[in-house]
């Protein structure tokens, strides 16, 4: 806000009825009226100045508007009056929270000793700059991914408890409660009131968001406010609030203003509702619609089950009507003769194979006997084995003193060789034999 000091206007003398400190004594005090007149005279010499500030109160009365302007960077405030003669020169949509510049002139009310400023002109200011800042912030947040659909959390189908941030006794609060309860009568709310415009909007909304986000019972948070011009909705485009909503663990629904209002909170929130009423409809399912859906699903399920059972019954009857299932013993009887014939053929085949095997075994036994040395031994011959089981075929293989084993037709005997015999001698002279029972 622009500040100014009283200044002497060149060529303009003090009011003739003014009083100065040197003219006032305890034994000769001045009157309050004269003092106020003196103050009024000095104030009127200041002239008009343009100041910038925010409207913090706006009371329309008969014949005038009584309001207050607050400095944008501090706590200083002034009282202003807008007479009906100046109402036509100011915008009709001015209200609390607007950022304005005004042409004011100091005024001192002599009778009441009240100091205020009369407004001769007033207009909105800074809207273009604010919109430019918002666009820069929008581009920054979009580049950081805060608008991406992938990061937005889905809302629960049926929230057990809804957190609501809105103005106290506001129409938005009533709309959300009324429409949500009409759709689902058992819905529960946890409401935290906060200023929805002005300096307290952002800090109070941040505190409410932090409180509800930390509550484990709250399944979704709705930030709701009625419509307004861009000036009054600036708090819902504040970067601090936007980043807090993006960092919240609980899904957040933005229900700010009307359909045409579009603060940055709409882009960052997990769901944007066009109005508080729309937020209630988007967050809470309609019990009537859900009952209709359940009834429809039950009907479809009954129809499908009936069709499936009927189809299975028809298939079962078709299977049961087949001859093989209608009279299963017929298949056994028709195959009895075949089984008897196969068994008979198998028995004959097995007997023939056994007889053939018996004959073949006899033939092999006879051939084995013909080739076996046992037949030769039965005719009186013997087989002589030297040490190590070597069969002797030459007398020279058993010199004198060699231990022999002689195998006969029945059993074996041990003997000792006396050397090679002379062919003319017939029997060996001096031959020694030792008879041992054989195996």
Automatic annotation (TrEMBL):
EC annotation from Swiss-Prot or TrEMBL: 3.1.11.6
Ranges in coiled-coil conformation: none
Protein name: Exodeoxyribonuclease 7 large subunit
Enzymatic reactions: Exonucleolytic cleavage in either 5'- to 3'- or 3'- to 5'-direction to yield nucleoside 5'-phosphates
Organism: Microbacterium marinilacus
Any Pfam family matching the protein: Exonuc_VII_L
Domain OB-fold nucleic acid binding: 31-122
Enzyme kind, highest EC tier: hydrolase
């Amino acid at each position: 806000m622009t500040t100014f000091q009283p200044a002497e206007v060149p060529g303009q003398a003090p009011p003739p009825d003014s009083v100065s400190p040197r003219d006032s004594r305890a034994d000769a005090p001045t009157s309050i009226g004269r003092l106020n007149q003196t103050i009024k005279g000095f104030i009127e010499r200041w002239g008009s100045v343009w100041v910038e500030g925010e409207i913090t109160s706006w009371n329309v009365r008969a014949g005038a508007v009584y309001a207050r302007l607050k400095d944008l960077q501090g706590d200083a405030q002034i009282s202003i009056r807008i007479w009906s003669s100046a109402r036509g020169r100011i915008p009709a949509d001015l209200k609390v929270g607007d950022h304005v510049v005004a042409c004011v002139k100091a005024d001192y009310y002599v009778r009441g000793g009240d100091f205020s400023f009369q407004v001769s002109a007033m207009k909105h200011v800074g809207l273009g700059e604010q919109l430019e800042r918002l666009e820069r912030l929008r581009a920054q947040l979009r580049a950081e991914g805060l608008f991406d659909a992938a990061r937005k959390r889905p809302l629960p189908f049926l929230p057990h408890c809804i957190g609501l941030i809105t103005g106290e006794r506001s129409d938005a609060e009533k709309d959300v409660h009324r429409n949500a309860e009409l759709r689902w009568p058992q819905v529960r709310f946890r409401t935290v009131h906060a200023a929805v415009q002005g300096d307290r909007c952002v800090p109070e909304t941040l505190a409410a968001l932090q409180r509800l986000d930390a509550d484990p019972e709250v399944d979704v948070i709705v930030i709701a406010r009625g419509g307004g011009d861009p000036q009054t909705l600036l708090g819902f485009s504040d970067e601090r609030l936007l980043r807090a909503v993006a960092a919240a663990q609980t899904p957040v629904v933005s229900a700010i203003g009307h359909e045409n209002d579009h603060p940055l909170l709409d882009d960052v929130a997990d769901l944007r509702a066009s109005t508080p009423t729309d937020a209630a409809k988007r967050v809470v399912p309609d019990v009537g619609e859900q009952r209709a859906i359940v009834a429809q699903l039950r009907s479809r399920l009954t129809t499908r089950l009936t069709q499936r059972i009927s189809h299975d019954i028809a298939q079962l009857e078709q299977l049961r009507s087949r001859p093989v299932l209608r009279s299963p013993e017929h298949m056994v009887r028709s195959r009895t003769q075949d089984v008897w014939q196969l068994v008979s053929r198998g028995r004959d085949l097995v007997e023939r194979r056994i007889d053939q095997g018996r004959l073949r075994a006899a033939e092999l036994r006879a051939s084995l006997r013909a080739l076996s040395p046992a037949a030769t031994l039965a005719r009186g011959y013997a087989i002589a084995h030297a040490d190590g089981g070597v069969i002797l075929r030459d007398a020279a293989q058993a010199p004198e003193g060699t231990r022999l084993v002689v195998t006969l037709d029945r059993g074996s005997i041990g003997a000792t060789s006396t050397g090679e015999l002379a062919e003319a001698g017939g029997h060996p002279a001096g031959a020694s034999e030792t008879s041992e029972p054989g195996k």
